Amino acid sequence: MISGLCEKHYRRLRKWSKLFLHKSKLKFYPPKFVLRDPILEGVHQAMFSGHQVAVVVMTISNLREFSQQLEPVQLEEYKRDLRAGFKSIVEDSPYNSDLLVVHDYYSEGLTIFFKINDDKQSVVYIENLIRTLVPRLERWMFTKYPYFNQSFEIGYMFIEREHSTIQDALYTAQQQAVAMAEKRIQSRYIETLLKMRDIIQKQDISLLAQPIIDLSTNQIKAWEFLTRGPKDTAFESPLQLFSLARQSNLIYDLELLVLEKAFHLINSVGCMDDVFLNFTPITLGNKRFIPGLEKLLTRYPDIEPRRMIFEVTERDSIEGLKFFHDNIKQLRQKGFRIAVDDTGAGYSSLHTISELLPDIIKIDRSVIQDIDTSKVKESMLKGLILIARETGSLVVAEGIEKKEEAEVLKRNQVDLAQGYFYAKPGQLQKDRVALV
Fold first, then answer.
1. Which residues pair with 153 in a beta bridge?
2. CATH 3.30.70.270: which residues of the chain?
3. How many distinct helices (H) and strands (E) make up the chain?
4. The pTM is what?
5. Model confidence over 167-181: pLDDT tens digits?
């Protein structure tokens, strides 16, 4: 009887032991990148609740130069001040609630984890965050170390949910972010750059389509085209694809390729509905954009500009883009329409709308989510609808996931809606769409 119990416990121990890494496996992970439980738990909890998690790496450009002038104790004090300064600045910013962890996994700077609510514009959110916080950090550090000329190199990456473990995913994302920040490590950066150029040269992207519904008729009125990178690669995720394209200064080339793919898809399936395409102000404000568009229109003469809507994200600044307003004017002269995307998600909605007087206002999912249980959100919706009526804009509500939300939109006479409640993105075909 005793030997039987021992055998039973032994089998149980062997079964549970398979859940833990053997110490021989640890050689594949750098010792300085062993994660503490609070970090793992924080990232896991954020991802489990549906957030994206971004890893932002900040390296000090010339730390090696002035670290030679500091004693080891002083250098550690400098790094502590750097962490404390960043936390202090974030606490006094709109990004405070999204900060998960500030750590020094990378010995010459910081690794910061942020959670982000909205998948679609996560890249724009992180870049705005960097543009806002980093200059403030540089000024803060200069007050403490005025004898050092301090500047930072930034790289970021999003943690992929598909990895077998969170630790694997964190390590991969952090290493990619380091490669983007540390352009001095030329082999990694050039490898990424060549991959992006290869994707663009081979046109190795595909487009999915999500229907946009006319709420007065419950019929499909339009489609939004969504980009995916090479299948079964890290670049298949639009987050990774567009974040790396922006960091390697290839966002214009990638988005012009998206436009060409969209024209080809519309022609090949004979799509007669309206089509929405997301473009960054960086691309729409590029002096090459209108000549590039005209070449595509010559190649695809059946494309009707009146059926094409260029979405400008509200979260990306249009300030300081020399050719932006002139390009928008020329687009309208050719018959294209303009939409302001993500209205209600950022801090400059009214300014962007007043600047562009868009044909269409797209209301962000953050306003729509659980609007059926929030009088405040419904009041926000009514305010945005009132603005849209004043500017003569149609209203599209994004991110509808349940019947109750759709009913609130109908009650408030929203024009158009899209979201998983109606359909997930799928392959556009001649018989309209094969849902995935």
1. 59
2. 20-184
3. 16, 14
4. 0.66
5. 777 777 777 787 777
